[in-house]
Design a protein that fits this description.
236 residues, mainly alpha, 2 strands, 72% helix, DUF4386 family protein, membrane, transmembrane helix, transmembrane
Amino acid sequence: MNTYPKQWRFMRGIAIVMLAVTALFTLASGLGTSCVAINPTGFGPSMAPLARYQWLYGLFVVITTLLGVIGGVAVVQLIRGRRGAYRLALIALGGGVVIGVIHMLVSRALRGKSMPVDVVVYITLLTLAVFLVLGGRKWRGMFEPQGTPPTDSGGPLLAALTLIIGGVLTLNLPHLMAATHTWNGINWAASFPPLTLGMGLGQIAMGLSMLGWRVLRQLRDKRLLTEGRVSTVSSS
């Protein structure tokens, strides 16, 4: 049976959860930039200088959102043990660093600061470093095993934990982003509470359902194994 070593499963799980968190923040950054891309003069004098480069911020929205989606797809593919998933993750992370740094430099030049893009870039850099280290020669096969994909890669459990963590972060995004998204006393990060609440609770519900299903299956398998042993002893 083709399996992952236990220590590999742990490190692989941490890396994939980090990628999921990075993808979520990248997606939120892309969607969040749409406010100033559409109406840069509507958020006070600090954002008004961006109006001259409204087209560029539109590109930031499209590219950053797309990279967030690619990162999410890479998470799913990594959990399933699909070939090409590691490369897809590097594309999302590498692209996120490049576009994020450009976004930071432009914002600092135009308005003197670039938060919260800075945080997203730092998170992306950290995740990229982890993937480069774990994807090196020493750990070859952790993300894309040679031959038959492992049967005990922990996919369902990892997917459940990723969904739960993503849901918690989604619910807290309005609070996490409040300091950098509040203008004239309005927290624009909390502009769509039904959407944020629905997405956050939906992810948590799906994650808990997957955990519950996994526990039920383990209990069933244990019961069948016990019954099999009992019947074997009785027949002998």
